[in-house]
Each structure stands twice: as structure tokens, then as C-alpha cells.
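Supplementary Methods S3. Complex input for the zinc ion-bound model.
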Amino acid sequence: MECRQCHHPLRVERRCRQIRLQCTQCKKEYHIHELASELDSAMEKELERFTCIIYD
Ligand SMILES: [Zn+2]
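Predicted complex, serialized as C-alpha cells:
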């Protein structure tokens, strides 16, 4: 997954019961549902580790 703004890689950021995808470069945060249609298989696997977390 890469940032829509700067195309740097996103990493999973865990906040209490929420998770966000945050850009490693410009620090823009994305909600999971914003990127739901674009998630690649690697990112989906990463997110599977957080199944107990509420996706808001
Ligand atoms: Zn970015």
C-alpha cells in the first residue's frame, strides 16, 4: 500500500481499539474503510492480525 499523496509506503498504526494506516513520509493517516477497495493481499494479511480491533 502506498500513500495517495506522496506514494511512500503506509504502515499500520494501532490506537487503542482503532487502527489507521499512516504514511511513513508525510504522516497522513487513512481510515481502513477509505482504502478498503484498494487493500492489497499483503496489507490484508497484516490487518488480519488485528481482527479484534474495531474498524471504524
Ligand atoms: Zn504520504
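The first strand starts at residue 10 and ends at 15. The mean pLDDT is 87.
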